[in-house]
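Action item from last week, closing it out:
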Amino acid sequence: MRLMRATIFAAVAVIPSILIALAAYLLLGGPSQSSEWETWMYGPCYGIPGLCIAAAFTLGLREDQE
């Protein structure tokens, strides 16, 4: 049951994590004049959504404290 709850938490966290990543992308410079991919973009584009989804999955795995 815990694994299913964690998977659902992670699936639901995809949309907010993408919105947070988009906001970070725009705050950090957004679309630049050059069309080449820059190495600093890995953080907002992959790091932030990955951390949000991992945190939601971990939260779903926690036991209920009664």
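Closing note: Residues 42-61 form the longest helix (20 residues).
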